[in-house]
# Entry
Amino acid sequence: DTAVSQTPKYLVTQMGNDKSIKCEQNLGHDTMYWYKQDSKKFLKIMFSYNNKELIINETVPNRFSPKSPDKAHLNLHINSLELGDSAVYFCASSQGASLTDTQYFGPGTRLTVL
Amino acid sequence: GNSVTQMEGPVTLSEEAFLTINCTYTATGYPSLFWYVQYPGEGLQLLLKATKADDKGSNKGFEATYRKETTSFHLEKGSVQVSDSAVYFCALRYTGNTPLVFGKGTRLSVIA
# Structure
């Protein structure tokens, strides 16, 4: 049973295209996140949703738009892809948004923009 | 601001060697501290955590103690195995409704 799943695992696309990455969690958690991991393995938060409401929106180009149709899903849509968007994108979830809540990560989606 | 500093890698050790990966933090208030591990080709997994000063987190032979006086959370293991080869991330969360703030990761390679 996969707790946090993402699709696709790999995504190769051309510059200028629009693409989506899907994330689902079956843990019953209220809070979900998107992180970006660059080529040097540095991880940075992009967005966080709590009960389908956006609670964290870091400095991310507005070409990136998260959508949470329900508490179990948080999708990431990216418009007009650029070379610099190439990275591994991780979805995560936690029971709540408190200080001690553990975040559980998905396997990642490796995006390559050509 | 809130940040985490980890020792630069890569770290290469022989099997059964002692491991220490240093982690220090800067944060307002009293953060929770975490170590995550990323095995090749996989997502991050929580390795251990500590939520208040002097707490010790432990899992799979790894330990880390929350030291408020030195703002540190060093990861240790007495005897590493080849299967411990991975990237290790130290992270903090400084208040509710905030994301994890990660260090840059330390790659560990254990050779037989």
